[in-house]
């Protein structure tokens, strides 16, 4: 499965180019404050990147951008089959780029490369694929109610969600 040696992984690590800017509104940009922090690898202490030190202003810009996109309907109003195809393609790209993504996870958090390759990346791709497959399979439902009542549950997108992901399973 993983035939790369420590020397191979080290060479790949030397050739990585890590972008430390925030991805907001469709592009990379520095934090509004201009501040950064040093991201050191717990593996060997090397500086991986200077990362944008985002704060509430940056988070608000990201949420505003996501809200505009949501309201424009680009994704929220897209036909389910198209959304499904995009998410399936995303899962495939995770699998295609598994080595690079696993290496990034290993360097960033110190997780063994074997775990990143065999646990994190497949689980991340499965989570995205599951969401893709659920798009045309999760319907509204009838709530359990007395015989003289009818309660319907309809699932609809309601807006933007901001989240902080766990450090040990960021792809998931």
Polypeptide structure, described:
With 172 residues, the chain is of the alpha+beta class. The chain has a single domain (19-153), classed as Aldehyde Dehydrogenase, Chain A, domain 1 (3-Layer(aba) Sandwich), CATH 3.40.605. Helices cover 45% and strands 13% of the residues. It has five helices and six strands, in the order αββββααααββ. The chain has helices spanning 6-14, 56-72, 80-96, 98-109, 113-134; strands at residues 22-24, 27-29, 36-40, 47-52, 141-143, 151-153. The protein has a two-stranded antiparallel ribbon with strand order 1-2. Helix 3 packs antiparallel against helix 5 and helix 4 crosses helix 5 (113-134). The protein is globular. The two termini are 22 Å apart. The mean pLDDT is 91.
| CATH topology type | Aldehyde Dehydrogenase, Chain A, domain 1
Give the termini distance in whole angstroms. Answer: 22 Å
Q: How many DSSP helices? A: 5
Please indicate the count of domains: 1
CATH hierarchy: architecture: 3-Layer(aba) Sandwich
CATH class identity: Alpha Beta
Strand order, main sheet: write it out: 1-2
The CATH superfamily bears the name Aldehyde Dehydrogenase, Chain A, domain 1
- The radius of gyration over CA amounts to 20 Å
What pattern of helices and strands is seen along the backbone? HEEEEHHHHEE
Structural class: alpha+beta
The shape, in one word, is globular
Runs with pLDDT <50, length 5+? Answer: none
Question: What is the count of β-strands?
Answer: 6
The major β-sheet equals:
2 strands, antiparallel
Beta-strand share of residues: 5-15%
Percent helix, as a range, is 40-55%
Provide mean pLDDT, rounded: 91
């Amino acid at each position: 499965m993983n035939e790369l040696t420590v020397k191979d992984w080290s060479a790949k690590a030397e050739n990585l180019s890590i972008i430390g800017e925030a991805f907001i509104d469709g592009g990379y940009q520095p934090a509004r404050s201009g501040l950064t922090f040093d991201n050191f690898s717990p593996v060997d202490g090397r500086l991986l990147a200077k990362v944008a030190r985002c704060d509430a202003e940056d988070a608000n810009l990201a949420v505003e951008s996501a809200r505009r996109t949501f309201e424009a309907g680009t994704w929220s109003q897209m036909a389910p089959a198209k959304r499904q195809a995009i998410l399936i393609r995303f899962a495939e790209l995770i699998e295609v780029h598994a080595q690079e993504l696993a290496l990034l996870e290993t360097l960033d958090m110190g997780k063994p490369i074997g775990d990143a390759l065999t646990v994190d990346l497949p689980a991340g791709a499965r989570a995205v694929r599951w969401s893709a497959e659920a798009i045309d399979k999760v319907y509204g439902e009838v709530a359990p109610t007395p015989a003289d009542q009818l309660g319907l549950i309809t699932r609809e997108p309601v807006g933007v969600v901001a989240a902080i992901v766990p450090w040990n399973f960021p792809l998931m």
